[in-house]
Please model this.
Amino acid sequence: MTNHTVALDGEGYLLNLQDWTPELAEHLAKDVDVEMSDAHWEIIYLLREFYQEFEVSPAMRPLVKAVNKKLGVEKGRSIYLMTLFPGSPPKLAAKIAGLPKPANCL
Model:
């Protein structure tokens, strides 16, 4: 990672979305005890595409729908997303993807 510090909000979300890099994502994932695998990256890049298209971080239902559409039925399930991003998949994945916290996630 570069030597400059990256600004995060009080909950650990990036303040400047342009600061995001895959290397930073690895650090953000470690901070929330997520070990990144190809399956994780698949969701992270899908989330970033979703954000580019809709300018919003999806909550659980739209996230599941987007994953289902792009990656298939077996991955487009909340159970699958929970195994990758325990607790709140939309919040954890958005944080690692360098995106804002989904609006309706507490």
In short: The chain has one domain: 17-97. The helical segments are 22-31, 38-54, 60-71, 78-84, 89-96. The CA atoms of residues 68 and 76 lie 4 Å apart.
